[in-house]
Specification:
It is built from seven helices and eleven strands. The protein is an alpha/beta fold. The strands form two sheets. Strands 1-7-6-2-3-4-5 form a seven-stranded mixed sheet, with no helix packed on it. Strands 9-8-10-11 form a four-stranded parallel sheet, with helices on one face. Strand 4 (49-55) and strand 5 (61-65) form a beta hairpin. The longest helix has 18 residues, at 119-136. The N and C termini lie far apart (62 Å).
């Protein structure tokens, strides 16, 4: 019979127990050592022990050993374990990949805002981040262009308790949009952008069922040119509704847009 060996570690040096969480598919966790954050894809048995495969929002996969205290769930340390038969139902996700909060009420709107260029931009942001924005109390408004961005920012009167985030289309070096954005220099305003001529391009072609977005000659209306090249009726409003209907989650969007919207949400929700 093995003799009892008391634990002589001082109480203040003992690790506090952490919850064991079944690694259900779509559970989003962060690996402590690397900071890699992603959704659970699968669990596997290996000669070295069980592993879990995570997929981040850019589609990159990483495999990690399921060691004790190796992951963060909602910012808290947990130990992932293999899900058993008839285990708990996995937490549902919002379209942006965040953990859904059942029954959560919309927060009273903040003074801060996120401005986007056009109606289509606003509808796409609502489609993917709408649940998150309502919980955070963030309102998204569209500007119908940014030619007067400096004046718009001045009229908004940004401050520590009223931050303003602006999402700009085609924000690349040397573009008209980059020159307009450079006119804004306020510590309470963040102007970011994506490289696409129009937010349509931020939807992955595979999600829409096409091989790639067409190249439209300069001087031609881009949206109309896309409809012509794809053989769609030249009704850009109807075309956009078709595109939007194919967007179900962040996985349908290009990383260049995902990162910028997340950046804006973080900026306008910073504590005062």
């Amino acid at each position: 019979m093995r003799s009892y060996q008391p634990d002589l570690t001082p109480p203040w040096k003992r690790s506090a127990p952490v919850p064991e969480v079944p690694a259900e598919p779509d559970l989003v966790v962060e690996e402590v050592a690397t900071g890699f954050c992603g959704a659970v894809i699968r669990c596997e048995k290996t000669a070295q022990g069980p592993t879990v495969t995570l997929e981040d929002r850019f589609g990159k996969h990483r495999v990690f050993p399921m060691e004790p205290r190796a992951f963060l769930l909602e910012g808290k340390v947990v130990t992932l374990v293999r899900p058993g038969p008839g285990g708990p139902v996995r937490p549902s996700r919002t379209a942006s990949g965040s953990v859904a909060v059942p029954g959560a009420r919309a927060r009273v709107a903040r003074a801060g805002r996120i401005y986007v260029e056009g109606r289509h931009d606003a509808e796409l942001v609502e489609r993917v981040w709408g649940d998150d924005l309502r919980i955070e109390g963030v309102v998204v408004e569209y500007l119908e262009g940014i030619d007067d961005l400096a004046a718009i920012v001045g009229e908004f009167s940004p401050g520590p308790d009223a931050r303003l985030g602006v999402l700009v289309d085609h924000l690349v070096t040397g573009s008209k949009e980059s020159r307009i954005a450079a006119q804004v220099s306020d510590p309470h305003v963040l102007v970011v952008g994506h490289p696409y001529i129009d937010v349509w391009e931020a939807v992955k072609p595979s999600s829409v069922g096409i091989e790639a977005w067409p190249v439209v000659p300069r001087g031609q209306d881009w949206k109309t040119g896309v409809c012509r090249a794809l053989g769609w009726p030249e009704n850009t409003g109807a075309a956009w509704q078709h595109i939007l209907s194919k967007v179900h989650s962040y996985k349908d969007l290009e990383p260049q847009l995902l990162g910028r919207v997340e950046e804006l949400i973080d900026f306008v929700t910073l504590p005062e």
